[in-house]
Amino acid sequence: MYFDFKSILPKVIDNSYQGVKLSQYFFYCLTAMTLWRSQHHLLAADGGAQSIATIPLDSFSSGAASTIVGIFALWGLSQLLLAFIYLLVAARYKSLIPLMFVIAIAEYAGRFVVGSWKPVVTLGDAPGGLINLPLVLVCLVALLGSIYRRDSR
């Protein structure tokens, strides 16, 4: 039993997954969540800025509110591109699941750090802000599960 850190950047990229099944299923959930949030930021009238993140768009000038909604839509596009990569990995290149967990950890840790450094004024607790640190920890555990190997080297 050991952790195969080399599987984060596998020499062969194929549809084989060697880790713990629970990590694989969590990756599918992460993929679905990324798809949902990306489409919401792209398609919701307010980009989710007020309806989800509780940013008080009503108190801003129309130009400022439009700019924030536009930035949320651009963010949604970035998330959609990442979600498509996740989908591709889930469907065809499962050997890259450990690498995707490293990327997810970097994304959510980065959100936590940037959000602490440059906080966004909201009227309530935005779900995205609340979930960043816990998701880093869960993705770290999932990463370890995805590189865990039972057989001997």
TrEMBL record:
User: Source organism's superkingdom?
Assistant: Bacteria
Keyword Membrane among record annotations: yes
What residues form the membrane-spanning segments? Answer: 64-89, 96-117, 129-148
Q: Does the keyword Transmembrane apply?
A: yes
Q: Which UniProt keywords apply?
A: Membrane, Transmembrane, Transmembrane helix
Q: What is the protein name stated in its UniProt record?
A: Uncharacterized protein
In which organism is this protein found?
Vibrio chaetopteri
